[in-house]
Specification:
The complex is a heterodimer of chains A (288) and B (179).
Chain A: H1 2-16, E1 35-39, H2 56-65, E2 70-77, E3 83-85, H3 106-109, H4 118-123, E4 129-130, H5 131-139, E5 146-151, H6 163-180, E6 187-191, H7 194-203, E7 208-212, H8 216-225, E8 230-234, H9 240-248, E9 252-258, H10 261-268, E10 274-277, H11 280-287
Helix pairs in contact in A: 6-7, 10-11
Chain B: H1 2-18, E1 30-41, E2 44-55, E3 58-67, E4 79-91, E5 95-108, E6 119-135, E7 138-155, E8 160-178
Antiparallel strand pairs in B: 1-2, 1-8, 2-3, 3-4, 4-5, 5-6, 6-7, 7-8
The chains are: A alpha/beta (288), B mainly beta (179).
């Protein structure tokens, strides 16, 4: 009985890991190509992925070693109105720093190091990087990687700005830096804030805008009337029908929260144009 | 400060355990063993099989290793060679303590669009561990090590080979059989 059970389990594991996708039959607005985008660089930090998200070493690994087609990074505004890549609300959750990004200057943040994982704490000296550093690196490359910017529109000093004031300064600063490196055609600005996307379009209409939503039918009018390039959606919260509706209206789809084998297969089978993943090699195994 | 304390503790542990403990039993004859290692390192989860020559307190093993990792690292199902030198500072009847220097490499074909060139990664680690007799000639044990890696990879965009180096670690489970 035990041996039969063991055989069954082994077969189940074997079969589950052998699921294949006919990538030749992918139909989307990119001509069947799904762009592989690294989440925070080479994926969020874990026991199997030592490099901290949004760090330069993680971004370089995604682009140079893994051959990802782009990365998604989280952008926040510092006290001195510089732009840095950092995900969490507060510094102490992932670094040896304290407080919010907007309470620190860029110079102060250069002395803040990632320390929330054994390998990073012991061996790495990765500090918080500026958006300008990323653009300097990307613009120097022959094949320009896609730069997906996730706006952290709720992280600002409410004593210094109103929400509208902050969004204008924030978006303007982003577009200034992107324009300085002539990187508009490879930059995607993603947000759930319609105001931020509106300001971005008003300043530079050439930058692609990505709106975060899973309610395609409800938001279709907004998406088509406001020059939105695509939507950003949780892989597990959006149906194939909703994706097809978006694509039918010339709206691209970017799926995220894609990490495990099952979620990767599920995401690829939805035929999006972009997938942001924490596991670039695994997604590439499925696609190539 | 926290980093310095961590590094200091690890260095201290190495120095203490690497000190030349009085050997309780030593052998002068040459012997051979087979050693199987399962280890976690920068390249993920790996298996290796080595033929080992033992002389006095020294042993040298050479064999093949293969990466099992199929996530996060593009090194899955890749093979390479492994070499391991051990010095047994403790050789009791049923337990042996050792320090070792381990080298392994792997060639792998990276994934991605239009990637054709092969990459190579080298790992070199100083280890500290022990093995204990499980049954007659069969020993089990483990070791922990720190060292470095050097990766030579092809940058598709720039069409150049680049070299990246960094720190490495190694958590190793050992199964050894003395012939």
């Amino acid at each position: 009985m035990t041996s039969k059970l063991l055989t069954f389990l082994l077969l189940a594991i074997g079969l589950s890991s052998c699921e294949k996708i006919d990538v030749g039959r992918i139909e989307n607005l990119n001509g069947g190509i799904i762009h592989v985008i690294g989440h925070g660089g080479a994926g969020f930090q874990s026991a199997f992925n030592e490099l901290p998200e949004n760090s330069m070493s993680s971004i370089e690994r995604a682009i140079e070693v893994y051959n990802a087609e782009g990365v998604e990074i989280d952008i926040q505004l510092t006290k001195d109105e510089q732009l840095v890549a950092y995900h969490d609300n507060k510094l102490e959750t992932s670094t040896d720093g304290f407080g919010y990004i907007y309470q620190n200057t860029l110079a102060e943040l250069k002395n803040v190091h990632y320390n929330n994982e054994f390998y990073a704490t012991l061996f790495l000296k990765e500090s918080i990087i500026s958006l300008e550093e990323v653009l300097l690196y990307f613009s120097s490359r022959r094949i320009k990687p896609q730069l997906h910017l996730d706006l952290r529109t709720w992280l600002f000093d409410s004593e210094k700005y109103t929400e509208d004031e902050f969004l204008k300064v924030y978006v303007e600063k982003i577009i200034d830096v992107v324009t300085k490196y002539n990187y508009q055609s490879n930059t995607y600005i993603g947000s759930s804030s319609k105001k931020a996307l509106k300001y971005s379009f008003e300043i530079d209409s050439s930058i692609r805008l990505m709106y975060e939503t899973e309610n395609i039918s409800e938001e279709l009018n907004y998406l088509t009337a406001n020059n939105i390039h695509g939507i950003i959606a949780y892989n597990d919260r959006i149906s194939i029908g909703a994706i097809q509706l978006a694509q039918h209206n010339n709206i691209r789809v970017l799926l995220f929260n894609v990490k495990s084998q099952n979620s990767i297969v599920e995401a690829v089978n939805k035929h999006p144009e972009y997938i942001i993943t924490d596991n670039i090699p695994k997604l590439q195994q499925v696609l190539y | 400060m926290k980093n310095r304390i961590n590094k200091g503790i690890i260095l201290l542990l190495f120095l203490i355990s690497s000190a030349d403990t009085k050997a309780q039993e030593s052998t002068n004859v040459f012997s051979a063993s087979a050693e199987h290692n399962t280890f976690l390192s920068f390249t993920g989860l790996n298996l290796s099989m080595m033929l080992v020559g033992n002389y006095k307190n020294h042993s040298l093993g050479v064999g093949i290793n293969s990466s099992l990792q199929n996530s996060y690292f593009p090194y899955q199902r890749t093979n390479g060679i492994i070499a391991d030198y051990k010095y047994y500072f403790l050789t009791a009847k049923n337990i042996k303590g050792f320090v070792s220097i381990n080298y392994n490499n792997k060639n792998y074909s990276p994934l991605g669009r239009n990637v054709t060139k092969e990459n190579k990664i080298h790992e070199y680690v100083y280890n500290n561990g022990f093995i204990t007799r499980l049954y007659k000639s069969l020993w089990i044990g483990n070791s922990i090590g720190f060292g470095g890696y050097t990766e030579r990879y092809y940058d598709v965009s720039e069409q150049t080979y680049n070299i990246k180096s960094g720190f490495n670690y190694r958590l190793n489970a050992i199964l050894k059989y003395d012939f």
